[in-house]
Amino acid sequence: MLGGILLGCGLFYVELNTDVSTYIKESVPAIVVSSQDTARTILGIMIGGLITLTVFTFTQMMSLFSQVAASYSPRLLPYLTGSSSLQFVMGTYLAVIVTSTIVLVSIRGSDKASVPVLSVTICIALSIMCLMLFLYFVTTISNKIQADKIIESVYKNGVEAIKNSCQAKNFEEKKLPDDLEDWHTIPSPIGGFIGTINYNMLSGLAKEYNTCFYIGAARGQYLPKNSPLLQSERRINPDQIKKVLAVVSPNHRKYNDWHLPNIRLLTEIAVKSMSPGINDPGSAIDVLDRLSALLARVMALPGYNYFRAEGGGEVYFSRYSFGDVLTGVMQELRQYCKADVLVMRRLFKMLNHLDFATGDHPDYRHLIREEIMALVEDARKNIHNSKDRRVIAREIITGRRKTEKLFENTNFLLNDDFLLERGTWDNDLFSDQ
Questions:
Q1: pLDDT score, position 418
Q2: In a domain, 329, yes or no
Q3: What's the pLDDT at 257?
Q4: Residue 30 pLDDT more than 80?
Q5: pLDDT of residue 96
Q6: Pairwise CA distance, residues 141 & 119, whole Å
Q7: Residue 306: CATH number of its domain
Q8: Considering 294, 320, 346, which residue would you say is the last residue of a domain?
Q9: Residue 413 confidence (pLDDT)
Q10: For a FRET experiment, which of 90, 163, 317, 320 has its CA 20 to 30 Å from that of 14?
Q11: In 3-state terms, what secondary structure has residue 274?
Q12: Alpha carbon of 124 to those of 39, 95, 112, 131, 184: distances in Å?
C-alpha cells in the first residue's frame, strides 16, 4: 500500500512537471484516453472492480483456511496465512486500488482539459495484472489446501529444523553431576514456554559467577510461574539471577522453529484424519510415511545435554529424548488408529523401518520393540477378522526376520535383554495365550 501511495504521488508529479502525456498522445494515439469523463469512468470501474475482487479473494481465502483448520488442525493456519505468494497478491490488489484512487483524484477541470494519459495507462495495465494475479491466486490456494501439499510442507519444515539442529557447535553429551539435587533452584518468573536460549551468554555468566547451570525444563515445555526453571551449583545474588533469567526466562508465545512442533503437527493431522467426522485414512497413511522419515532423522540426532563456550562455564540442560518423542507419537496414533487395518499395518511398517535404522543403538531397538508389542496388544483387542490378523502377524514376523538378517550381515549382536523371544513372534501373535 505504501508503494501504491508513492507510485500515485510520483505519477502526479510527473504529469505536472513533464510533457510525457503529450508525447504519448502524439506517438501512440490509439491507446490514449482523451476524455476526462472516460478516464474517470474507467478508473471508477477499475477501483470498484478491484475492491470487489479483494473482498471476494479475502472471503474465499478465510473460508478455505477455516475448512483446513476444521479438517486437519488449526495450527496449520500459520503455514497458509504466512505464504508470501498470497500476501503478495493481496498487497498488489490494495496497492493498485490506492494508485488508481490517487490518479482519479488528480483528474480535475473540464472535459477539454488535459488527461494524465501516462497515469491512466499505467493504472489500466496494473488492473489487468491484478486479473492475472487472481488466476494465480486461485491455482495457488487450490494447491496449498490439498492434504498431500500440507503434509509435505510440514515435513520439509521438520527436515530443515533437524538439519539446523545438527549444525550446533560446542554441544556434547555428558553425564549429569551426581550432586545435582543439592544445587540451588531458580524459579520461573512467569508462566510460559521454554524457547531459544542464548547458550553462549549463559555459559559466559556461569564463568563470571564461578558456577554451573542446569536448565531442568526441555525446549518447548510449558512452565507455570514459580516452577523450577534452572539450578545453579553456587548460590548467586538477586542481581545475578536477573541477568540469568534475561537469557533463560520463558516466553508467552510458543516456539515452532524446531523439529518437535512439526512432528506433533503431523501426528495431529493423522489423528484428525482418523476421526469419525473426517474418516480419511489415506491422509493418515501419507502422514505415517513422513513421520517415519522424520523419526529416523530424530533418532540419528546426537543426544546433546551439555554446552560450554570457549572460555565460558558449564551449562547442562534437559531435552526430549527419542524415546519421549516416539512414545508421545505412538500413544496418540494407537488411540485413534487401532481399529483401522490399513493404518495399523502402516504403523507396523513405520516401526519396522525405524528398527532397521537403529544402527548400533540397542537402547533404541528396545524402545521400538516395546512400541511394536504395545501396538500388537491394541491390534489384538480391536481387529477381530482372522484374515486381517494373519496378514498383520505375517508382516510383523517378516519385518523382524529382515532386521535380524540385517544385523547379522553387519556383525552386530544384541544382548538377550534387548531381544524379544522368538516364540513371541513366530507363534500366533493374536492368540489369547
A1: 32
A2: no
A3: 66
A4: no
A5: 94
A6: 32
A7: 3.90.1170.30
A8: 320
A9: 37
A10: 90
A11: coil
A12: 10, 13, 21, 11, 70
- Specify whether 120 is located in the same domain as 193: no
CA geometry: angle at 76 spanning 161 and 138, to 5°?
115
Residues 6+ apart with CB under 8 A from 248: 194, 197, 202, 215, 229, 230
Hey, which residues does 185 pair with through a beta bridge? 231
The neighbouring-strand residues paired with 228 are: 187
Q: Is 301 left (phi over 0), alpha (psi -120 to 50) or beta?
A: beta
Residue 193 placed within a domain? yes
Mean pLDDT of the chain: 82
209 in the same domain as 342? no
Distance separating alpha carbons of residues 337 and 356, to the nearest angstrom:
23
Q: pLDDT (tens digit, 9 = 90+) per residue, 366-383? A: 888 889 888 888 888 888
> Grid cell 551426581 — which residue?
178
Q: Residue 195 CA to chain centroid, in angstroms?
A: 15
Select from 145, 165, 190 the last residue of a domain: 145
Are both 283 and 300 inside the same structural domain? yes
Would you say residue 23 lies in a domain?
yes
Domain extent at residue 357: 338-433
Q: Is residue 252 part of a domain?
A: yes
Please work out, in degrees rounded to the nearest 5, the angle formed at the alpha carbon of residue 391 by the alpha carbons of 386 and 392: 100
The answer to whether residue 426 scores a pLDDT higher than 50 is no
220 has pLDDT over 50: yes
Q: How many domains does the chain have?
A: 3
Q: Which residues sit opposite 307 in a β-bridge?
A: 171, 315
DSSP string, 130-178: HHHHHHHHHHHHHHHTSHHHHHHHHHHHHHHHHHHHHT--SEE--PPPT
Question: Does residue 313 share a domain with residue 195?
Answer: yes
pLDDT at 417 exceeding the cut of 80: no
Angle, vertex CA 85, rays to CA 80 and CA 86, nearest 5: 55
Asked whether the predicted pLDDT for residue 82 surpasses 60, the reply is: yes
Q: Are residues 287 and 359 in the same domain?
A: no
Residues 137 and 153 in one domain: no
Look at residue 97 and tell me whether its pLDDT is greater than 90: yes
Q: How far apart are CA 357 and CA 368, in angstroms?
A: 11
Alpha-carbon torsion angle 419, 433, 340, 73, nearest 10:
-60
Q: What are the cell numbers at 113?
A: 482539459
DSSP conformation letters of 51-69? HHHHHHHHHHHHHHHHHHH
- Residues 106-154 have pLDDT tens digits of 887 665 567 788 888 899 999 999 999 999 888 888 887 788 888 888 8
Q: Are residues 93 and 137 in the same domain?
A: yes
